[in-house]
C-alpha cells in the first residue's frame, strides 16, 4: 500500500525528498543534493573545496549545495575514490520587477561600487571558509522570524526595468523591530552595515554551512559570539536596498547560495 507521501510525490505535489535529520534533496540550481556515500569514500570536493559530510545514523551522506548558476545537465563531485555525478534538473523560477526610488541602488557611483567590492570580498571569505562541525548530527533548522514566506528565492529580478542577478535568499515580510533568531546553533562570523544588504549578521554552522540575515534595523550580537538555536541575533528592518520592511534569509552551502526552505521540515 502506498504511503501518503509517495502518493503526493507521484501526483507531483511533492518535488523533493528528505532523509530524516537532513535537508530536503532537490537537485536543481539553488537546490541541495543529499548523497549516500559508500564506505570507501572519505573525502568529497567540488571545485577544490570540501563538501559537507555527515552521518545521522549508520549511513554517511554528502550534503552538497548546487550553485544558482548551474545549467541543466550533469555535475561532478570529486572524491578519493570514484567521482559522483549529479543530474541537475530544470526548475522554473519566477520573475520579480521592483521599483527602487534611490537610484544609487540601481546604478551605483564608483565609490559605492568600490565599497560593494570590499564588502563582497569580506562576505566571500566567509562563504569559502570550512570549519569543523559543532554538532554530532546535522542541525535541525527552524524559522528565523515569524511571517509568510514570499517564495522569492531564485527569482530573476528587475530593478527599475534593469535586469540583475537572481535573488539568492528568501524574503520574509515582517514589521520593523520584530525579533530575528538563530535558526540553528553556530558562531557569529560576520556583522556589518553593507551597501546593498544593510545591517547584516552571518552565522557559521560548520563545514561550509553559513546563514545570513540582512536588512536588520538592529544587530544584537557581535563577531565571535556563540549562539544557541532560538537566540535573538537582531531585529527586522529595512536597511540597504529594500522596497519595504522584511528579513532576507540566505543560506550558503559549499559557497553556493541555496533555498533556505530546503533546511526546514516539509
TrEMBL record:
Question: What is the scientific name of the source organism?
Answer: Acinetobacter wuhouensis
GO MF annotation: an example: metalloendopeptidase activity
Q: Where do the Peptidase family M23 N-terminal domain residues begin and end?
A: 30-81
Listed CDD domains: M23_peptidase
Protein origin, superkingdom: Bacteria
A family per Pfam: Peptidase_M23_N
Which PANTHER family does this UniProt record tie to the protein? M23 FAMILY METALLOPEPTIDASE, PEPTIDASE-RELATED
Q: What's the protein called, per UniProt?
A: M23 family metallopeptidase
TM regions (residue ranges): none
Every copy of the M23ase beta-sheet core domain together lies at: 166-260
